[in-house]
Amino acid sequence: MAKKYYWLKLKDNFFDREEIKLVENMPNGEKYINFYLKLLLKSIGTEGKLMFRNTIPYTPEMLSSITNTDIDTVKVATDLFVKLGLMDILDDGALFMLETKNMIGHETEWAKKKREYREKKEDNVLKLSEPSPRDVRQEIDIDIDIELDKDKDKNNKKIKYHDFVFMTAIEYKKLIEEFGEELISEKIEDLNNWKGGKGKKTKSDYLTIRSWIKKDKKKEKEKQLDPYAQYQVTS
After folding, report:
1. Phage replisome organiser N-terminal domain location, by residue (predicted)?
2. CATH T-level assignment (fold) for domain 4-102
3. Which residues contact 52 (CB under 8 A, 6 or more apart)?
4. Residues of the chain with pLDDT under 50
């Protein structure tokens, strides 16, 4: 697969905008702006939508992990960005950076090489002639080199879904598809309390949750087959 290069274009008046000034002048404002810029960069490959591998909406905990931002800053800043019209929350729960589409530039590797060759050729011509003024660029190009080829090793990277609960995105997706988001959220909470409260460890949080759900279903099935079993007394 051919490599494609993306860059984020910030206009030179970016920090003069009212909403950016409001954020920047708040307590922890610099943290919020830094977090906002990281989200813009993170969303350029998906034209604004913040999704893990285009399948799972990022949770606050996931955003905290991938942007190296404390969780309180993530939660406060996200709410603030939505109120200021810098971000939106889609029906599927994904965060959408409203300005990313207008800031994206991209080119293929072949186009990049061709452009560099053309610029080099122009520079050589300029050295042999009288210097001429160049157009002043009104935008700051932050070059971001994104390798679009999927790295299989990243599939094995565990993500923090709660204080003590970790699993890969694929494992989480399987649980959601099989058992539903509501039940999995409940089990993640239970597992987190169990591990944190009792200092327990598991080889796999994913397998532990699956095991718990299967045991619950087995008990429920046994209860349905013999509703009076729980009242039986053995002599």
Report:
1. 7-122
2. Arc Repressor Mutant, subunit A (1.10.10)
3. 58, 62, 159, 169
4. 1-2, 107-112, 131-132, 134-138, 140, 144, 146, 148-149, 235
